[in-house]
UniProtKB/TrEMBL annotation:
Name of this protein: HupE/UreJ family protein
Annotated signal peptide: 1-24
TM stretches of this protein: 68-87, 99-132, 144-168, 180-203
Keyword terms, alphabetized: Membrane, Signal, Transmembrane, Transmembrane helix
Pfam families named in the record: HupE_UreJ (PF04955)
Keyword Transferase: no
Species this chain originates from: Bradyrhizobium betae
Top-level taxon of origin: Bacteria
Length: 204
């Protein structure tokens, strides 16, 4: 008889534990779409190269021009994500390659790009890559959480890359300094990657 209260308490504890585990699983599943949006671009080479190239281009032009990309780039990602269902069957590989080639050549030439043109380039890159990321989503994905994660990582990536480039070039005395040459050389490599990608796409 005395065991009944103990058994009742054990049963209640098991039920509470099961409920807590279920709630935790639901929360983890919901937040999983946010983390998927934040991590998905980091697993795609085209995202990594284009985002870094865009941030570097903004950084070489200085903080006064580059800071406009802080809101422009995440907004472009969200616009591209919203357009993903419309362009789900369209490949972005040629557009990605073209943007890599263009940005790489601008970096290699140390071109002084106007702020409006810089924002247009960054917005175009963000829309293209936002659509590419959104095209792979399944119907079970919470698009709002995915969009929040994508926008957050886009903001962080473009801001960090731009800031590091500004700091790296701050001590460059002239366009012939090794720091300036290193940035231009990296731009040449990015342009070469874009050219090879475009060639492969057109040849297929």
């Amino acid at each position: 008889m005395k065991l009944k209260p103990v058994r009742a308490l054990m049963a209640a504890a098991i039920l509470l534990t099961g409920t807590s585990a279920a709630d935790a699983h639901i929360v983890a599943a919901r937040l999983g779409d946010f983390y998927m949006g934040a991590s998905h671009p980091l697993t795609d080479l085209q995202d990594v190269v284009l985002w870094i190239a865009t941030g570097m281009l903004a950084g070489t032009l200085g903080a006064s021009k580059g800071r406009w990309l802080i809101p422009v780039f995440p907004i472009g990602l969200l616009v591209g994500l919203s357009l993903a269902p419309v362009f789900a069957t369209v490949s972005t590989q040629l557009a990605d390659a073209t943007m890599m080639l263009a940005i790489g050549m601008l970096l290699a030439a140390a071109a002084q790009v106007p702020t409006l043109v810089l924002c247009a380039i960054a917005f175009a890159v963000a829309v293209i890559r936002g659509a590419a990321n959104g095209a792979e989503l399944g119907p079970e994905t919470d698009r709002l959480l995915f969009a929040a994660g994508l926008a957050c990582v886009g903001y962080g990536a473009i801001t960090l890359t731009m800031a590091l480039t500004v700091l790296f070039k701050r001590n460059a005395d002239s366009v012939t300094s090794w720091r300036a040459i290193a940035v231009r050389a990296l731009g040449g490599w990015i342009a070469a990657i874009g050219l090879m990608m475009a060639s492969l796409v057109l040849a297929s």
